[in-house]
Design goal:
- This protein is α+β, with helices and mostly antiparallel strands and 177 residues long.
- The protein has one domain (34-159): Four Helix Bundle (Hemerythrin (Met), subunit A), CATH 1.20.120.1090.
- The protein has helices at residues 5-10, 18-22, 40-61, 73-81, 90-108, 139-145, 152-172, and strands at 34-36, 110-117, 120-127, 133-134.
- A four-stranded antiparallel sheet has the order 1-2-3-4.
- Strand 2 and strand 3 form a beta hairpin.
- The N and C termini lie far apart (61 Å).
Length: 177
Amino acid sequence: MAFNFAAAEESGLRELTSEELQSYGFDTEEVPATVKELSLGQRYSLDTQRRETTDLIARRLGILKLKGDKSDLQVLQNLVDKKAIRGDDVRGLQGLGIVFGDILVNEFGLDWVSYEDDIGTSKALRWKKTENYVFPVTMFSKRVQFKEKIDMAGVFEDIGVEVEQFIAYEAAKPVFK
């Protein structure tokens, strides 16, 4: 299908030359995200999905209680490997992300927050009061969507490296008083 330049001109659109395109001022004004404590509704939602995931773990794997540390990664991997959560079960995959996020909280000292930007509101993990975030809720549903294999230990290690970089970066920043 060919692009109709005449129709584009009539609608107010015009073709730019390569020189014009190089100097074109794209609207790049970035609206800062709003970060705050989780609302009661967001906490309830996390708790509900967390409970659904731990119930699934109990039913499918016979494990009644998670430890909340990285030893639980193998439990979550077993859940994935046994295909206990269908690829089209976005809520189930998000619950997996929440339980995974809880491990990150316990292992790295992150905190659950509400993160709102021009795309929408998300539940995220933040390191201290910095601008360093991890978004575990959608982490696995997106991997499934893009047909990536879920490797709990690998994802955990990658995030661990990122968090260590957060910490090193923040420690190296000069403190002004």
